[in-house]
């Protein structure tokens, strides 16, 4: 019985190989290797023994049958140091995984407009490649597609693009600028990691998350604008971006660990109103940090219970924290905010309500501040401009009076609203 079973299995295997030979065959034409599909009348490029400029034909004829060249196989030119220029036909629709990976001397390739799929690591370590122009049909730049293309200087992305995979342009040291289409909404991790000379890049207005290590160690990056759509700034997103001198997190609600770690040139940070959580070491080792403006409508909390200060080794004992007057005492009582050398009230209408927005009559004469129109028995707290408590007063018959030094500026806090008043 066992012998009979082995014979049947052998016959099945032989039949499978015979069937494959009927539908697929490896051929070489003009020094280029192909696998042809007899069923579909298509051909896939498998490699070459040629060197220098390689021209792939759009079709080939085998035994009087014409086959259309539609794809480049996985690893077709993997570790091929002889290829210098690659000309692909307009019949190509797919470029496989690692198809041109480690082609160190290939300085030029034109990707046809017909290509709609590029595999992982397709052009990784093509260290001589200088420019790349994507076809309009591409919607996704795959994982590590151009990693370590050390001389890549110009990248043209299509307007149909929606996402860029992890590490897609990591370690492209010659890349100085890139324009991301507004259609892009998703970045993988480390897309531009270690692009040491990247100075200018835009973040499209539909992106919701700045991914892990997105711009990690982009030491030349400056002037980045974070759009209102961004909700999360993930860990190490701007790790050691040493040329960043200011950042506005706009509508972000959460900033994860090490997000801006080692941004040694960062002097000014602005947190928008929605910020709720700040994780440990998120702004650690930002040695030039001097002004932090928190417009958050609550005091942002630590995202985890980790003991490391988000501002570890950033010398915040010498920095100034600017906060809404209505929250200043809470900031002074909350870690890590209470570690700042100075905590002052924000100027302007973001933290202090403009007087004409209050239905109040405010007058100041001879060092006496009078506020009319306050609800009876309401407590009004008075602070100096640097956040020190000056005193309190209660409304009687809708009026509040407070004596202080003429020529100063005080902050009157009524409930959760604050008003800046110049004392005459």
Strand content: 25-35%
Number of strands: 34
* C-alpha geometry: elongated
Number of helices: 2
Distance between the termini: 110 Å
Oligomer: single chain
Rg calc: 32 Å
Bin the helical content: under 10%
**Largest beta-sheet characterization:** 7 strands, mixed
Nearest-integer average pLDDT: 89
Low-pLDDT runs: 14-20, 349-358
> How does the helix and strand content classify structurally?
mainly beta
Structure description:
By secondary structure, this protein is mainly β. The chain has helices at 2-23, 328-332; strands spanning 24-29, 32-37, 42-48, 52-55, 59-62, 65-72, 83-87, 94-95, 108-110, 117-118, 131-133, 140-141, 154-156, 163-164, 177-178, 186-187, 200-201, 209-210, 232-233, 246-248, 254-255, 268-271, 277-278, 291-294, 301-302, 320-323, 342-345, 361-365, 368-372, 379-384, 389-394, 399-403, 409-414, 417-422. The strands form nine sheets. Strands 1, 2, 3, 5, 6, 8 and 10 form a seven-stranded mixed sheet that branches. A five-stranded parallel sheet has the order 18-19-21-23-25, with no helix packed on it. The protein has a five-stranded parallel sheet with strand order 20-22-24-26-27. β30 and β31 form a beta hairpin.
């Amino acid at each position: 019985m066992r012998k009979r079973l082995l014979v049947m299995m052998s016959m099945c295997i032989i039949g499978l190989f015979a069937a494959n030979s009927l539908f697929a065959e490896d051929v070489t034409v003009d020094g280029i290797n192909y696998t042809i599909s007899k069923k579909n009348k298509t051909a896939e490029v498998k490699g070459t023994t040629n060197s220098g400029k390689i021209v792939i034909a759009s079709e080939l004829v085998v035994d009087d049958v014409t086959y259309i060249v539609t794809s480049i196989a996985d690893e077709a030119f993997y570790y091929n140091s002889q290829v210098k220029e690659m000309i692909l036909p307009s019949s190509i629709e797919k470029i496989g995984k690692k198809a041109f990976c480690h082609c160190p001397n290939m300085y030029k390739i034109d990707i046809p407009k017909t290509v709609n799929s590029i595999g992982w690591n397709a052009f990784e370590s093509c260290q001589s490649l200088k420019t790349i122009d994507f076809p309009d049909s591409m919607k996704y730049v795959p994982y590590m597609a151009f990693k370590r293309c050390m001389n890549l200087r110009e990248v043209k992305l299509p307007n149909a693009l929606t996402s860029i995979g992890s590490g897609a342009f990591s370690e492209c040291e010659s890349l100085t600028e890139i324009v991301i289409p507004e259609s892009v909404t998703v970045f993988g991790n480390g897309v531009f990691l270690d692009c040491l000379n990247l100075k200018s890049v835009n973040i499209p207005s539909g992106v919701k998350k700045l991914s892990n290590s997105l711009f990690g160690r982009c030491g030349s990056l400056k002037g980045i604008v974070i759009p209102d759509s961004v909700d999360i700034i993930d860990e190490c997103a701007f790790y050691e971006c040493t040329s960043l001198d200011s950042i506005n997190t706009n509508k972000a609600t959460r900033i994860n660990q090490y997000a801006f770690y080692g941004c040694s040139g960062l002097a000014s940070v602005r947190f928008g109103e929605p910020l709720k959580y700040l994780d440990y070491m998120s702004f650690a080792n930002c040695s030039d940090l001097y002004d932090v403006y928190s417009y958050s409508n609550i005091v942002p909390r630590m995202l985890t219970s980790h003991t490391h200060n988000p501002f570890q080794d950033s010398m915040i004992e010498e920095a100034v924290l600017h906060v809404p007057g209505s929250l200043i005492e809470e900031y002074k009582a909350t870690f890590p905010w209470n570690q700042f050398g100075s905590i002052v009230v924000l100027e302007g209408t973001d933290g202090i309500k403009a007087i004409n927005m209050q239905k109040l009559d405010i007058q100041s004469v001879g060092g006496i501040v009078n506020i009319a129109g306050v609800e009876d028995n309401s407590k009004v707290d008075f602070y100096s401009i640097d956040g020190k408590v000056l005193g309190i007063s209660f409304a009687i018959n809708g009026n509040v009076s407070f004596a202080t030094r003429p020529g100063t500026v005080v902050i009157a806090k009524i409930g959760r609203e604050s008003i800046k008043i110049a004392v005459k």
